[in-house]
Amino acid sequence: STITCEADKFEVKCPPDHFIKIVNALYGNKNPFTCYRKTYKQLTNKCDSKTATDILASRCDNSNYCSVMAENKVFGDPCAYTYKYLKVDYLCLNGLLVLAGYFLTVNTDEILNELVCENEEMEFSCPKGYTIEILSAMYGRKDRRICSDPEKNDTDCEAYGSNVLISDRCNLRQQCRILPNNDLFADPCIGYRKYLQVSYRCLRNHDILSTITCEHEKFEVKCPPDHFIKIVNALYGKQNPLTCYKETNRQISNKCGDSLTTTDILDSWCGISNNCSVIAENKVFGDPCVFTYKYLEVDYLCLNDITGKPSTAPETKRKGLYLEDFHIHLPELRTPISHRLLETMPDVSHLVVGSMPEINKKKPNRSAKSSILGKKNKDL
């Protein structure tokens, strides 16, 4: 993400052999503290140009470099007599190969960026079968234009250990949610408004194991000796009407469930344990859709106590069809597909189900685990 104040130049350059893909753009004013100017009369802080994304995409998509002035001549004036800014979310894409159409895959070299102001929730995710790797994280204040404060704006600060904290929370997960504030991080500059900036990438993980447990049944998993469970993603609810289908049950909804909440709950039950069993029921996970027969779908890893690396999973343990298993011909598409769009593809995971063999449990070495879930910052 990048923010450009009105009358300044928005400029972006991707690495060699990469091209720009505009994900979203806002030209207007949604936050009174962003690009704040005391001398400028603000009539509103709730406006945006509805065509900013299309306009910027027409100028920048598929180019390696792009520069555009953030001004009314380009985007129109969504709110007169109000100082505005241009906020842009974009990707630098590479590695999407054309082969009889498009071969759908995720470029693991693609660096993704997220930015939110203090006390605003941040969410980011990878497609199914991929896990997050945090590259850098900064909570503090480095740029006076971002999340600006009308009273205190000139400072340069960063919370000690930001990268380690975010890595511990998000690495090896499919999705991650963070609420950045001074309770989560030590306050690096008291009295100043701060923001959280995160860079990450999505890594393909063939060692992910999956299981589906119908409502009221027991979810049970055991890892090999000297290994512990790492929950990658979990969903309690219903996303597929054919999964755990029962004719006798009235189905009110086929689309319900919060995977981030389910993952947090299951991680509190099973995280860093060698084995785990939980009943898939509303008492544990809450009821995301009443009068609907639900299921618990879990993706997890078995990590070695010492190295933190997954155990080698036989191909028979893989559940579902993966994107690299087949080619899809999409002649109507004219631009490559980013990993964010892959999440809209239909769920076919119920077609193939793998099972985990029973293995004698052994108490894990917990002391080694806390140090290997997150990537350590060399500067700390």
TrEMBL record:
Key words, A-Z: Lectin
The protein's matches in PROSITE patterns, at most eight in alphabetical order, are given as: SUEL_LECTIN
Q: Domain SUEL-type lectin: where? A: 4-93, 116-203, 213-303
One Pfam family this chain carries? Answer: SUEL_Lectin
Region listing for Disordered, in residue ranges: 359-380
Q: Name one GO molecular function term.
A: carbohydrate binding
Keyword Phosphoprotein attributed: no
The reply to whether Signal figures as a keyword in the UniProt entry is no
Entry superkingdom: Eukaryota
Q: Which PANTHER family match?
A: PROTEIN EVA-1 (PTHR46780)
Protein family according to the UniProt entry: Belongs to the G-protein coupled receptor 2 family. LN-TM7 subfamily.
Protein name (record): Putative galactoside-binding lectin
Its taxonomic placement starts with:
Eukaryota, Metazoa, Ecdysozoa, Arthropoda, Hexapoda
